Automatic annotation (TrEMBL), chain A:
This is MHD domain-containing protein. Coiled coil: none annotated. PANTHER family: AP COMPLEX SUBUNIT MU (PTHR10529). InterPro entries: Adaptor_comp_med_subunit, AP2_Mu_C_sf, AP2_Mu_N, AP_mu_sigma_su, Clathrin_mu, Clathrin_mu_CS, Longin-like_dom_sf, MHD. It comes from Linnemannia gamsii. It comes from the Eukaryota. GO terms for biological process: endocytosis; intracellular protein transport. One of its GO terms (cellular component) is clathrin adaptor complex. It is found in: Cell membrane; Membrane, Coated pit. The keyword Secreted does not apply. It is a peripheral membrane protein. Keywords: Cell membrane, Coated pit, Endocytosis, Membrane, Protein transport, Transport. CDD domains: AP-2_Mu2_Cterm (cd09251), AP2_Mu_N (cd14836). Residues 169-425 form the MHD domain.
From TrEMBL, chain B:
Residues 701-810 form the Clathrin adaptor alpha/beta/gamma-adaptin appendage Ig-like subdomain domain. It comes from Linnemannia gamsii. The keyword Repressor does not apply. It is a peripheral membrane protein. Belongs to the adaptor complexes large subunit family. This is AP-2 complex subunit alpha. Residues 604-626, 653-680 are annotated as: Disordered.
Length: 426, 939
């Protein structure tokens, strides 16, 4: 399994170095720096050099690297790397170079806990927080009591939840967050469109509640004969995965999502769909090269969602040729300006009402080049957030909470669609 | 240079922690610069700053595809700093084939023409860096002008020389080197040693391509060496660890190796002096490493030159002793160079005795710890090998082969094979050695080696039995290499029957010996062995059964070649009659003699290097094609050509430089050395005669009839002449007076003498004439044969530019006549003896104006004819006699009658000599003299 685990900063300096097995030397860290970090050609997250495989994940300004000499399960190792990031985030708020440097003792402690001889162990932040703390040493008695709890917790059926959680007000928040990926050809054909969604849950519920959760998922609904008439409104989910608290046995047998939620925030589910996607924005770019010294832009953006909704932080990145000397542009809404550092015109629209449309007209002046290279015309990319809108059309149908005490709980659902890789060629 | 914007930009870039940030900063800056450039109307300072920024980005590795025009514009700026950045920009951003180079050619030319030498240097740098073909074509002449111009500063000249060298190396065809040869070689005389050094590098490169055009460099180089080494005339700036400018010394010594040895006795003596001094200097123990290195560098080059000049000279003998000491040195480099130089010596000399004394040391060097030294040791052994020591060397090498480095073995095997073949006195020894070689060197033996063995054995009947025996013996040894099996297979197949009666070599034993190895060898060898077997069937029918079994087995083998052979041989062997078998297995005919493939293989190994080698490793015979020797060969050809010409010229009295097409006139018989180094004509196809100075005829004609006077005069130079003659010898003094108030530099005089006349200068002339001073050059003359031409002299000097004056020297044939007095009886006796045409010539000469008897008399006297009074019955008629002396062709008696006719103002001239050529030519001389009316004197 994992033979060693390293964290590097952006320059390739080793911040954390933990060896779990004897089959590697510490100097292997240099090899990764030379072969991967300083080699700009390498883009693959897995590099095998000799018999050693390097798995790396970039997060903020860090490289999180796991090494193995075995034919290990790559997905498992990547999952572990992401878990480390999550644990780090829940401990330090932000998992970046500064945080790692400031908390390296704690990180080594955590690494000792989450991996044993290279095999992943409990990596649930909530559980870890019970016994790996930043606080000062407690009295012996308290430690005794705590340790008893910890043992039960770590070995029990719901290792992710303590049993003694109590809230005055029982609330559960569900956020459905979707990111839309789009690639539109210059002719306006959709080359690729899909939605990657995640359902985040914040549960502030007392005791050990059992929740049931329902979506307008096609498979789920069609199973239930009573709901068959509503099938027009269903969503076909290509693929989904759940938090470890979800009882997969039940899901497999009768497609119900039931679980005992961990306390606090967690990601309940991740899914992907590629059918019937409502694209939130339509872009009509008209880019004309006039001679060799000028390019004319006319970009029209239309919001495709209901006029009751609005999008925030809409940003369009409109590439300009590499030999641009200057750009003049006017936008019917928001601000547009030429950013030479990125070779593009950045058009920002803070608030974009549904069904409205805006245009940008502009002109880029070009300088002569010694080597005539045709402009590669990279695509326009777009960034946005639309609240209370899902591109996939997914809706939460219900969330039921059953608890021994039978308390009343309040549930909130929020939807948001944001741009993933939203690109339009021209 | 302070450019705040640039400093800030560089600081920003350095502060970027990651590539992405750097890229963003770069993009931003590029956009900014694009905008600025687009605007135009930038000040020179701004342009400079932005070009600097672009260059900084460029050297960081980013693509820069604009700003070239701005760099080009900067070049034409008048400010140095802007110009400098402009040039830096174009040298970095452009390469020699980019289209934009065209734009800068004119700016560069302008800077080359500039009076500011710093601008010249910038332009030269640019040419040297990006000079492509186009640039070379359009700017080479400007570079040349800067190089030869007397106004150029030293450092400009240096750079110009090196720029020219770069252009020449890139595009040798663009530089008209032969045309420029003379002016370039003149620069060797420059007072600045640095200039001399740079130009020597240039000449070394040029001379390898155009050796004849650069012959002029020989005396210059020798004089320069003499000045530096013997006269110790050098500036103190150029002393490196007590050694004056070692780089120049080495280069000059090297340069001289590209030419055949000079034939001018003065020069060779001077050179001898130089070499001797170098060798003497080398005796002193050096102070430190640098001193040692410099001293040795010069010494080795000097030894190489000495070997090149004459490998039997005394200097070489001394050098050999020094080398012997060097090959024992503790320093690896010295040992290496010592061996290398000794190999050079061994490669060209016949006298190997000196080197053979050190054979043991050389053999020991094969065990040196440094492989390059071992290699040189091997080279030397190979070069010094001859019949007498071949056996020792070869046996030593074979012994060494086992422990030799793998990298060395293949070459060693080749060399051993060549030496054995070349110096074998007895054939059996050859076979022994080669077989031993094949059995011990194994894999390192190339195919060529065993091919050659087979060729030689086949061609020498006496060897065949012996080698068959030996091969069989070697194949029985437990470690038998496949190559041995190949040789064995072939030889036994051909000559196995010769030893079939010996014990242990019966047919079946031969077959078994071969077949024991059959399964272990490669397919090609097996195929060869199958052929051997079919030959065995022919030779020894008694073992046919065993062999057929093998064929039968191999009819089913997978390899197509083996299968086919087995099937075909099987078919041939099982035919009812043996006719076909016998025809097929007829004994091999002898191989035609061909060049050993081994030598060509060995020579392949010496690749092309920058400077051509002046010699090849190997015996004397392998050194006949080196550059200098080639040149000598062409010279020889020319000489042969002029011998042919001599035959023609005797009859039609036109000896010209036609023999040597390039204006080089060599003496008809190569035994005596020509007086001065033959100098090339300035332009090919244009002989000296065609370039005589205008107005020269006046002075010349005046001197025809006298011995002393002014030969030439212009505003700069006055040339006077004095001469005296005695028999076939003469002395000629030429005075060169500098009429100006500045020094004349690069002064050089060379003489082109017609065949049969030797003009030798007594000492070497100074290369400069001080203001208002006169120098003198003495020539000794020797008339060897009948000469009908006069010698030509060429004077060149530098006054502003290089001037060349071509003049005729009034050394007429008649100068070598001794007057005699004959009585009337004697005269007419001989007159009749000579008889009429063709040895008699007669001409009626009509003169302008009155006949002056006194003048006629003085003409005859001046042409050294004795006037015999009272011989002719008619008073007033002249009778004159003389003997024309030559050192080689004997004497020619000359009789002459000159009959003036006062009424018609005509002379009748009758000449009878014992040689028709002399008659004709003497008549010409007198004819011209009688007709000549001196022009009114100009002073």
């Amino acid at each position: 399994m994992i033979s060693a685990f390293f964290i590097y900063n952006q320059k390739g300096e080793v911040l954390i170095s933990r060896l779990y097995r004897q089959d590697l030397k510490r100097s292997i860290a240099d090899i990764f720096r030379i072969q991967v970090i300083s080699n700009t050609d390498v883009r693959s997250p897995i590099i095998t050099l000799g018999s050693t495989s390097f798995f790396h994940v970039r997060h903020e300004n860090l490289y999180i690297v796991a090494l193995t000499k075995w034919n290990a399960n790559a997905a498992l190792i990547f999952e572990f790397c992401y878990r480390v990031i999550n644990v780090g985030r829940s401990y330090f708020g932000k998992f970046d170079e500064e945080a790692v440097k400031a908390n390296f003792v704690l990180i080594y402690e955590l690494l000792d806990e989450v991996l044993d001889f290279g095999y992943p162990q409990n990596s649930e932040a909530d559980t870890l927080k019970m016994y790996i703390t930043t606080e000062s040493v407690k009295s012996e008695r308290a430690v005794m009591e705590d340790s008893a709890k910890i043992t039960i917790q770590a070995t029990g059926a719901t290792s992710w939840r303590r049993s003694d959680v109590k809230y005055r007000k029982n609330e559960a928040f569900i956020d459905v967050i979707e990111s839309v990926n789009l690639l539109l050809s210059a002719q306006g054909n959709v080359l690729r469109a899909d939605v990657a969604g995640q359902i985040m849950m914040r549960a502030y519920l007392s005791g050990t509640p059992e929740c049931k959760f329902g979506l307008n998922d096609k498979v789920l609904l069609e199973k239930d004969p009573s709901n068959r008439r509503k099938t027009s409104n269903t969503v076909e989910i290509d693929d989904c995965q759940f938090h470890q608290c979800v009882k997969l046995g039940k899901f497999d047998s009768d497609r119900t999502i039931s679980f005992i939620p961990p306390d606090g925030e967690f990601e309940l589910m991740r899914y992907r769909t590629s059918d019937n996607i409502n694209l939130p924005f339509k872009v009509h770019p008209v880019v004309i090269e006039i001679g060799k010294s000028k390019i004319e832009y006319r970009i029209l953006v239309k919001a495709n969602f209901s006029s009751k909704l609005y999008a925030n932080n809409v940003v369009l990145n409109i590439p300009t040729p590499l030999n641009t000397a200057g750009v003049t542009c006017t936008a019917s809404s928001g601000k547009a300006k030429y950013v030479p550092a990125e070779n593009s015109i950045v058009w920002k629209i803070p608030r974009f009402q549904g069904q409205s449309e805006f245009t940008l007209t502009g002109e880029a002046n070009l300088t002569a080049m010694t080597h005539k290279k045709a402009w590669s015309r990279p695509p326009i990319s777009m960034d946005f957030q639309v609240l209370m809108f899902t591109s996939s059309g997914l809706l939460v149908r219900f969330l039921k909470v059953f608890e021994k005490n039978n308390y009343q709980s309040v549930k909130w659902v929020r939807y948001m669609t944001k741009a993933g890789n939203y690109q339009i060629r021209f | 240079m302070a450019m705040r914007g640039l400093t800030v930009f560089i600081a920003d870039i350095r502060n970027c922690r990651v590539r992405e940030l750097e890229e963003k900063r770069i993009n931003k800056e590029m956009a900014n610069i694009r905008t600025k450039f687009k605007d135009g109307s930038l000040s020179g300072y701004d342009k400079k700053k932005y070009v600097c920024k672009l260059l900084y980005m460029y050297i960081l590795g980013w693509d820069i595809d604009f700003g070239h025009m701005e760099a080009v514009n900067l070049i034409s700026s008048t400010k140095y700093s802007e110009k400098q950045i402009g040039y830096l920009g174009i040298t970095l951003l452009m390469h020699e084939n980019s289209d934009l180079v065209r734009l800068v050619v004119n700016s560069i030319r302008k800077d080359l023409d500039d009076n500011n030498e710093i601008h010249n240097c910038l332009a030269l740098h640019a040419i040297a860096n990006i000079g492509g073909r186009e640039m070379a074509e359009s700017l080479a002449s400007d570079v040349h002008r800067l190089l030869v111009s007397p106004n150029s500063k030293s450092f400009v000249k240096k750079k110009a020389a090196l720029t020219m060298l770069r252009l020449f190396r890139k595009h040798p065809d663009v530089i008209p080197a032969p045309d420029w040869a003379e002016r370039i070689t003149n620069i060797i005389d420059d007072y600045d040693l640095g200039v001399c050094l740079s130009v020597t590098s240039l000449i070394t490169a040029l001379a390898q391509q155009y050796p004849e055009a650069f012959m002029l460099a020989i005396p210059k180089a020798i004089m320069r060496l003499h000045k530096v080494i013997v006269e110790r005339d050098f500036s103190a700036d150029y002393v490196y660890y007590k050694i004056p400018i070692p780089w120049l010394q080495v280069k000059l010594l090297r340069l001289l190796q590209y030419f055949p040895p000079t034939e001018d006795p003065n020069m060779s003596e001077m050179l001898h002096n130089v070499l001797q001094t170098i060798i003497n200097n080398s005796q002193e123990t050096p102070r430190n490493v640098q001193h040692n290195n410099a001293q040795n560098a010069i010494l080795f080059e000097a030894i190489n030159l000495a070997i090149h000049l004459d490998c039997e000279s005394d200097i070489v003998r001394q050098a050999t002793n020094i080398l012997a000491r060097f090959i024992l040195s503790k320093e690896t480099n010295v040992r290496y160079l010592g061996l290398e130089t000794m190999a050079h010596l061994a490669a060209v000399t016949d006298e190997l005795d000196e080197i053979k004394k050190h054979e043991e040391t050389i053999i020991l060097s094969l065990r040196d710890k440094d492989i390059s030294v071992r290699r040189r040791g091997l080279d030397l052994l190979y070069s010094m090998c001859d019949v007498s020591n071949a056996k020792t060397i070869v046996s030593e090498l074979i012994r060494y082969l086992h422990i030799a480095d793998y990298a060395l073995r293949e070459e060693m095997v080749l060399k051993i094979a060549i030496m054995t073949e070349k110096y074998a006195t007895e054939h059996s020894w050859y076979v022994d050695v080669i077989l031993q070689l094949i059995s011990s060197a194994g894999d390192h033996v190339g195919e060529e080696v065993w091919y050659r063995v087979v060729q030689i054995v086949t061609n020498h009947e006496s060897l065949q039995e012996y080698s068959a025996k030996m091969v069989l013996h070697y194949m029985r040894s437990p470690h038998c290499h496949e190559n041995m099996l190949k040789v064995g297979g072939y030889i036994l197949g051909e000559y196995g029957h010769l030893i079939a009666n010996l014990p242990g070599a019966s047919p079946i034993e031969q077959f078994n010996t071969l077949h024991a190895r059959f399964g272990l060898c490669s397919l090609a060898t097996r195929a060869l062995l199958l052929s051997t077997y079919i030959k065995f069937i022919n030779l020894f029918p008694e073992i046919k059964g065993a062999i057929l079994a093998v064929f039968n087995q191999y009819r089913h083998v997978l390899d197509a070649e083996l299968q086919q052979r087995a099937c075909e041989y099987m078919a041939i062997a099982t035919m009812p009659t043996d006719d076909l078998l016998q025809t097929v297995c007829e004994e091999m005919p002898q191989f035609p003699e061909r060049e050993s493939a081994l030598l060509s293989r060995l020579n392949e190994r010496t690749g092309q290097t920058e400077d051509k080698r002046t010699w090849n490793i190997g015996g004397k015979d392998s050194n006949e094609k080196t550059p200098a020797n080639l040149l000598a060969a062409t010279k020889e050809r020319n000489e042969n050509g002029s011998v042919d010409d001599l035959v023609n010229s005797v009859s039609n009295t036109s000896i010209s430089a036609a023999g040597g097409e390039n204006g080089t006139v060599a003496p008809a018989n190569g035994s005596t050395a020509p007086p001065t180094p033959a100098a090339p004509a300035a332009k090919v196809g244009l002989t000296w005669k065609d370039q005589l100075a205008p107005g020269h005829e006046n002075w010349y004609n005046r001197l025809r009839d006298g011995t002393d006077g002014i030969l030439y005069e212009d505003s700069i130079l006055q040339i006077g002449i004095k001469s005296e003659y005695h028999g076939h010898l003469g002395r000629l003094a030429i005075y060169f007076g500098n009429k100006t108030h500045t020094q004349l530099n690069s002064f050089a005089v060379s003489v082109e003498s017609p065949e049969g006349l030797i003009v030798a200068n007594s000492h070497t002339l100074a290369t400069s004439i001080g203001p208002s001073t006169q120098i003198q050059q003495l020539y000794s003359l020797e008339c060897q044969q009948i000469v009908t031409e006069v010698p030509l002299i060429r004077i060149s000097y530098q006054a502003g530019s290089t001037q060349s004056i071509y003049l005729k020297l009034p050394v007429l044939m008649s100068r070598f006549i001794e007057p005699i007095q004959l009585s009337s009886a004697d005269f007419f006796g001989r007159w009749k003896q000579i008889g009429g045409a063709p040895r008699e010539v007669q001409e009626i000469i009509k003169v302008q104006g009155k006949i002056e008897l006194e003048r006629a008399r003085s003409i005859l006297v001046n042409h050294r004819l004795g006037i015999c009074e009272n011989v002719d019955p008619k008073p007033g008629n002249f009778v004159a006699t003389g003997v024309f002396n030559t050192s080689l062709s004997g004497k020619v008696g000359c009789l002459l009658r000159l009959e003036p006719n006062h009424e018609t103002n005509m002379y009748r001239l009758t000449i009878r000599t014992t040689s028709d050529v002399v008659s004709k030519h003497l008549k010409e001389i007198l004819h011209t003299a009688l007709l000549y009316r001196p022009a009114p004197s100009t002073r």
